[in-house]
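Ticket #4471: complex job returned nothing on first submit. Input attached below:
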Amino acid sequence: MANSTLTKQRAEARRSTVALKSAMAVTGLILVLFLIAHMYGNLNVFAGQEAFDDYSHHLRELGEPMLPHGGFLWIMRIVLLASVLIHIGSAVALTRRAGKARPVRYRTRKPVQQTYASRTMRWGGVIIALYVVFHILHLTTNTIAPGGASDSPYERLVRGFQPENFWVTAIYILAVLLVGLHLRHGIWSAAATLGLNREGRRRAINTVAIIVAAVITVGFLLPPFSVLFGLVG
Amino acid sequence: MNITLRVWRQKGRDDAGRMVTYKVEDVNPDMSFLEMLDVLNEKLTLQGEDPVAFDHDCREGICGACGVVINGVAHGPENTTTCQLHMRSFKDGDEITIEPWRAKAFPVVKDLVVDRGSFDRVIQAGGFISAPTGTAPDAHATPVPKADADRAFDAATCIGCGACVAACPNASGMLFTAAKITHLGSVPQGQPERDARVINMINQHDAEDFGGCTNIGECAAVCPKGIPLDTISQLNRDLLGALASSKSE
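Support reply: We reran it on our side without changes. The output follows.
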């Protein structure tokens, strides 16, 4: 084959469905790592107000004096924002493609073995994205401040999840459960997309996906439930 | 057995198509699904109606010509080709829905017959090895480890029926493409063109308007030849490797 033809084909393959999926897989895994770090931070709530607020404060000092105050946090925010945009952009492109790939629907459709999690990836992802916006407005910028605004991240959390603001907790629980489902299929799918699925490994990858998804779900649900039942605050 | 069929009827490529209900009486449980359709077609022909068009050839489960979606599952309730499905898999009085493979890449020609030329073009893009002609080489001239030969053979059993595309929620042709990538990539003869093959075949796959893979696994679950889902991971690995390497052929 002539070099120029393959070079052209290679450039085209960099925009292929497999390339888009790989971009989703890599950015998704970055976001999973962030979620694990975020969950660890949240669990500091059980060490009391001082420890929790200190943790939040130290995040801004991380890397000093090599980095300016808040520098590490901004690097992380930029990486996360880029990951989210690439992840959503690829998802939109692939979803539109999938819609066009089957213009006439089946009148009768019976799933054979697909998981519930795999069916909720698209709409679940949209709801999670909307939730993230609400979540930042609530606990980061404190623009939405159920129970009253505060400079203390600990107080924002405790006030937000009080029983009288149950709607906040309900939305939070729904979002976390959707994240759990998203990760259950997403981690498996990312691993398979990046070529890790080999003969006899499907079960092992799925087990890891279920465990990570379950740990993250429970880890994120502990703080709001503890506040709701008065164990924290 | 008495069966009620709801069959997709479509006069041609541009017809909108619709479901039509037929009754088939005195069905023998040992008939194959296609023989049951033959009985229906004889009846329709005698009544002066247009028989239901469906693809079939060997009726032995090895050619890949037949294939319809039966009650929402590609090739129906048994994990085999439609021709190897028997009416004993159904009950007397059952209502059975029959639809063609539905994908943009598989346009309906008539009724249950679809054009699977897109599969041929994916193979033409790279699903082959370039070998000099001449005397056949000795069988042991190029040693192949048993495990590799087995994997190549398992992947090579794909009959191109298209059930993977029909079952995929995204109408992706990834399992079909991956089977050929795995088949040729597992043996020494496939190595020289390995990078170019995966690049060209993926580009053709996408150009044929198949959807992307989301690793849901419905394809492998309905595959009558049991092509494993991990072949898709092999394809991804090969493509990412080929894109990362700067080697040109």
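Chain A touches chain B through 51 residues (CB under 8 Å). Closing as resolved unless it happens again.
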